[in-house]
Design goal:
The protein has 10 helices and no strands. By secondary structure, it is mainly alpha-helical.
């Protein structure tokens, strides 16, 4: 074989070797990419199943006590009168408040969906489906956090004051109605239980002090007069803020607001769990 032919054969063999090497490397890269994609998809599915176990039906992180609208009657801002039984259960109100007020923090503590493995080319067509799953999971969690946080300031304000009013009524048999009314007045003067209802709370605080003064003096007629004046002041204040003119109407308006909070939480849970998975 001539030298020229040897050179030609060598050149051909070199080209073949290069092709084989490139093909091997490409196949290896493709297999490695496929393995990374499969693992990432499995991690995302596992994350979704964990979230469904936490927030789906009977989820371990779902608020379990009765909702606020089921345990609050809306009557705790009325003056405490001797012999009257408390209308609301302090334990039930405290339990519902704890569950509702702490839930946004629980949701904010949920870990983010697992990110892509290091080095994975997210622009490659092979990753399109899993990237879409990741983006959907991340968007669902962000929407969940935002939704449960919508009512959080109002819930915390309500739960910072209203249970104290319930406690004043519940403890009146021990403290006496006059002392209970002073506790009620202090709570209402410190913070109103609903934003926008400040005139109602201010009227309630003044009325509770007036009733307490009459009770401390032991004058039954003066106590009855102070209680009647309290109802009139309440009606004037509620009318000023656009509520019903009696305590029944005000209580119904309060419970309706609490029902909206409960509904918002339920809707946020449903939207989140519905968004997970295929």
């Amino acid at each position: 074989m001539t030298r020229r032919r040897w050179l030609l054969v060598a050149a051909v063999l070199a080209v073949v070797v290069v092709i084989v090497v490139l093909a091997t490397r490409g196949g290896g890269a493709s297999a490695e990419r496929s393995e990374s994609i499969t693992q990432w998809d499995a991690d995302l599915r596992s994350w979704e199943q964990e979230r469904l176990a936490q927030f789906g039906p009977d989820g371990v992180l779902v608020p379990t006590p009765q909702p606020l609208s089921a345990v609050v009657l809306g009557s705790a801002d009325a003056p405490v009168l001797a012999g009257a039984k408390p209308g609301e259960s302090l334990d039930a109100v405290n339990g519902a408040c704890t569950a509702q007020a702490s839930f946004p923090e629980v949701v904010r503590g949920v870990p983010a969906p697992p990110a892509a493995p290091a080095g994975l080319d997210l622009e490659h067509p092979d990753t399109e489906t899993v990237v879409a799953r990741f983006d959907a999971d991340r968007a669902a969690l962000a929407a969940f956090v935002g939704a449960v946080g919508t009512d959080e300031p109002q819930v915390r304000q309500f739960c910072g004051t209203y249970p104290v009013l319930v406690a004043a009524h519940a403890n009146a048999a021990t403290t006496g109605p006059a002392e209970a009314n002073l506790q009620l007045a202090d709570a209402l003067a410190t913070q109103c239980y609903l934003s926008g209802w400040e005139p109602v709370c201010a009227a309630g605080a003044d009325s509770a002090r007036d009733v307490a003064t009459a009770q401390a003096g032991g004058d039954a007629a003066a106590t009855d007069a102070a209680a009647a004046a309290a109802d009139a002041a309440h009606a004037q204040a509620t009318t000023a803020v656009g509520l019903g003119s009696d305590r029944t109407g005000t209580a119904a308006a309060l419970v309706a607001i609490l029902a909206t909070w409960d509904s918002d939480t339920s809707a946020a849970l449903t939207a989140f769990t519905d968004a997970l998975g295929d």
